[in-house]
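Support case: zinc ion complex. Customer-provided input:
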Amino acid sequence: ARGGLVLPGLIDTHRHMWQTAMRGYGADWTLTQYFVWYYLEHGRHFRPEDIHAGNLLAAAEALDAGVTTVVDWSHGLSTPEHADAAADALTSLPGRYVLALGNIHQAPTQWTADPGIRAFLRRRRTDDDMLAFQLAFDVTGDPEFPEKPAFEAARELGLPVTTHAGVWGATGDDGIRLMHEHGFMGPETVYVHSASLSADSYHRIAATGGSVSVSTESEQSAGQGYPPTWRLRAHDIPVSLSMDTSVWWSGDLFSAMRATLGADRSREHLQAHERGETVTHSALRADQVVAWATNGGARALGRGDDLGTLETGRKADVVLLRNDDSPAMFPILHPYGHVVFQAQRGDVHTVLVNGRVVKHAHCLVGVDLAAIRHAVANTVDHLRGALGEEA
Ligand SMILES: [Zn+2]
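Agent response - structure generated as follows:
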C-alpha cells in the first residue's frame, strides 16, 4: 500500500440499483420526468430478470468504486418474484447489501401485507450480515395517514423504515409530523434527501435519533431542495451519503463527497456575500465528508460497532487507493482532501469485503462482467421493444 491511501469501505445508504440497467438515460431529467417515466408509465415493464440485471450491474459498479455496502432502495418490486430476483443478484456478488423492499405500483399498506412478500422475508432473512433488509416507502402527508399499517408491519417484522422525506412537491412536513405523532420515528429510521423541510421536522428527526441520507448530485439536478447538509449540521442530525440512481448520476461516492462539500461551501459563500462578508474558514471540512461516506453510513444502518472505521475487531471492508500511473495521485499532502477532491474510481486499486479480495490491481476479482453486459443488453432490448423507439 506504499504511496497509497487506505480507508474503510464506502457505504451508500440509498441507491435504486434496479435502475442501473438504464444507466445514464435520464441525465437531463427533472424529478417530474423521472416520476412520469418510472412511476406512471414504464416502471411496470420491468420483469424480474430486469431487476436482476440492474442489480448485478449496480453491485459490480459499487465494488469497482470501493463502495462495499449498499442499501438497495428497491422500489420496483411489483411481485415476490421481483424481490427474489433482486435478492438473487445481491447474493451472487461479494458485496455487503441491505435490500430495502419497496413497490411503487401498490400502496405501502397493500404490499407490506402481501402474503408473498411475507413468505419472501421468511425464506430470505437469515443471520448472514452480508444481506440485511429494510422496508422502503414514502409518506404522502395525507391526514388519514394511510401508511400507518405499513409502519406497523415494519415494527412487527423488526425491520427499519427508509423513506424519501423532504422532497419538494412530494413529501414534506406533514408526513414527518404524522410519523412522529404516531410514534414511528426512531434511531433506525433513515430519511432520504430531507431537503425541503421546516425546522420543526428537523427537530423531530433530531429528537428521535434518526439520520438523513444526503444525495447531493440528485438534489442538485432533480429538484428535491437544496442539499441540506448545512441545516443538518445546524440541528446536529447524523448524515450518511448516497448517490440515488445511476439512471442520472455517478455510482461512485467520490463524486458524492465532492458534490456534497462543494454544495455546502457554495451556499456558505453565497450567504456571506449577501451580508457583504467573506468566508475566511470553511465550516465543512474534507475529513467530515469522508466520515459521512464511511462511518456515517455504518451508523445509519445500526452497524457503527463493526463497519465504517478501520479498527481491530471490525469487519474487514477495506479500500486501497493507489495509482502509480496517475499524475493526480502524488504528492499526497492532505489525505482527506485527496480522497474528496483528487481521487476517483480509477484510483481504487484494491477492495476487500468481509476479508475477501473483490478487486485487485484495478480489476474486479470473480465478477463476470461479460455475463452482466449480456443481461443488461437483454433488458435494454426488452424495454426498447415494450416502450417503442419514441419513448
Ligand atoms: Zn431515491
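The chain is about 40% helix and 15% strand.

Case will auto-close in a few days if no follow-up is received.
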